């Protein structure tokens, strides 16, 4: 049986594992602008792939030119804060083979933590909004 207490316990456990997350729909324009300016202030040549993200880049056969479009034409999807790390999830607006490149950038350490392709018609019906925190900073 799902109860309010069980939900709070699941939410607390999720935050412990994943930190706090804020969806773009919960951000005001100042927050969005601040996060995008933080990203663009870092030269794209200063970003490093983690071993994990480099492996995923190769496995998922992501086109390098398509990946680089994140710096030119992308939208902010989420902000994550975990273990003193500030991360953003960006999705390229450029479509290539019916997909858009998505990547998580660790603004604190200037690393790309993961990269994947998102099918352009994915409407995210399974998005778990209960795990987002509108008050996350």
Counting DSSP E segments of at least 2 residues, the number of strands comes to 6
User: What's the SSE pattern?
Assistant: HEHEHHEEEE
Number of helices: 4
Report the major sheet.
6 strands, mixed
In the predicted model, the low-confidence regions spanning at least 5 consecutive residues are 3-16
What is the overall pLDDT average? 83
Q: Taking strands numbered 1, 2, ... along the chain, how are they ordered across the largest sheet? A: 1-3-4-5-6-2
Which word captures the global form? globular
Percentage of residues in DSSP E strands: 25-35%
Helix content: 25-40%
N→C terminal distance: 33 Å
Task: Determine the structural class based on helices, strands and strand pairing.
Answer: alpha+beta
Cα radius of gyration in angstroms? 16 Å
Could you describe the 3D structure shown?
With 137 residues, the protein is of the alpha+beta class. Strands 1-3-4-5-6-2 form a six-stranded mixed β-sheet. It is globular, with a radius of gyration of 16 Å. The N terminus is likely disordered.
Write the layout of secondary structure elements.
Layout lengths: L3 H15 L1 E4 L5 H12 L7 E2 L1 H9 L4 H5 L5 E9 L2 E8 L6 E8 L4 E9 L18
Parallel strand pairs: 2-6
Antiparallel strand pairs: 1-3, 3-4, 4-5, 5-6
Question: What descriptors fit this protein?
Answer:
137 residues; alpha+beta; six-stranded mixed sheet; 4 helices; 30% helix
Concise account of the structure shown:
By secondary structure, the chain is an alpha+beta fold. It has helices at about 5-20, 30-40, 50-60, 65-70; strands at about 20-25, 50, 75-80, 85-90, 100-105, 110-120.
């Amino acid at each position: 049986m799902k109860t309010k207490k069980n939900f709070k316990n699941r939410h607390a456990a999720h935050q412990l594992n994943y930190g706090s997350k804020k969806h773009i729909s919960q951000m005001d324009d100042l927050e969005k602008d601040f996060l995008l300016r933080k990203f663009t202030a870092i030269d794209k040549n200063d970003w490093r792939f983690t071993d994990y993200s480099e492996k995923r880049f190769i496995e998922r056969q992501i086109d390098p030119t398509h990946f680089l479009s994140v710096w030119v034409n992308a939208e902010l999807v989420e902000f994550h804060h975990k273990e003193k790390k500030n991360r953003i999830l960006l999705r390229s607006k450029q479509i290539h083979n019916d997909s858009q490149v998505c990547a998580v950038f660790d603004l604190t350490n200037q690393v790309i933590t993961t990269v994947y392709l998102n099918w352009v018609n994915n409407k995210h019906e399974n998005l778990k909004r209960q795990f987002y925190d509108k008050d996350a900073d």
